[in-house]
Amino acid sequence: MHALASALADGAATAGAEVRLRRVAETAPRPAVEANRRWREHADTVMPDVEVAQLADLEWANGYAFGTPTRFGLPSAQLKAFLDTSGGLWAQGRLADKVGTSFTAASTPHGGLEATVLALNNTFYHWGSLVMPLGYGGAHLMDAHLMKESGNPYGASFTGGSKDLPTEVELLAARKQGQRLARFAAAVATASPAGDSIR
User: Fold this and answer.
1) Is the pLDDT assigned to residue 143 strictly greater than 70?
2) Contact (Cβ atoms closer than 8 angstroms) between residue 5 and residue 67
């Protein structure tokens, strides 16, 4: 997930967006993390350098890209716990009229990738955000990479076992999704009364 998130953030940045790469707080008990060598190593070496998401980040951004490993076809409990704290901002309308997109990973080809993206997008519907899929590039501009290689219009995703890492196919899809998010977030922000910069 971190590799996909980083690629998506890079894509958004190359399209001119100001980007904040964040993670949600880990809520799994430490023994569960310790029991999985790769989870433990990632938690101890990579995650300390990534800031924990705050509600202020949601309010600041014009566009969101939420990524989560699939958990039985649903977003992870950690991400869901963070999203569940957004009710105050939602009630004030501070999350409306922004652009949202989702991405995911699973360990098996039919592990719930599409279901997870669609479930995560439910949050955007309730917030009043505009849901932006990865897409294939439009009927007249079909993106060969997205059509033939990633084959996924929902959101960047990766299917891999415990030893696999995303390939350039998945990372390119994530970068394209980030570029698209930046483009649409800029258009929506420009149309807003404040005419905000891209974030």
Assistant:
1) no
2) yes
Q: Tell me the whole-structure pTM to 2 decimals.
A: 0.89
Select the more confidently predicted residue: 199 or 133.
133
Q: What is the DSSP string of the chain?
A: -HHHHHHHHHHHHHTT------BPPP-S-HHHHHTSHHHHHHHHHTGGGSPBP-HHHHHH-SEEEEEEE-BTTB--HHHHHHHGGGHHHHHTTTTTT-EEEEEEEESSTTSSHHHHHHHHHHHHHHHTPEE-----S-TTS--HIIIIII--SS--EEE--TT----HHHHHHHHHHHHHHHHHHHHHHHHSTT-PPP-
The model's pLDDT over 77-110, given as tens digits with 9 standing for 90+, comes to 999 999 999 999 999 999 999 999 999 999 888 8
Taking only the tens place, the pLDDT of each residue in 1-52 is 999 999 999 999 999 999 999 999 999 989 998 998 888 888 888 888 899 9
Q: Which residue has the tokens 């993670």?
A: 23
The structural architecture, per CATH, of the domain 2-191 is 3-Layer(aba) Sandwich (3.40)
CA-based nearest residue to 123, from 160, 95, 146, 155: 95
**Domain residue spans in the chain?**
2-191
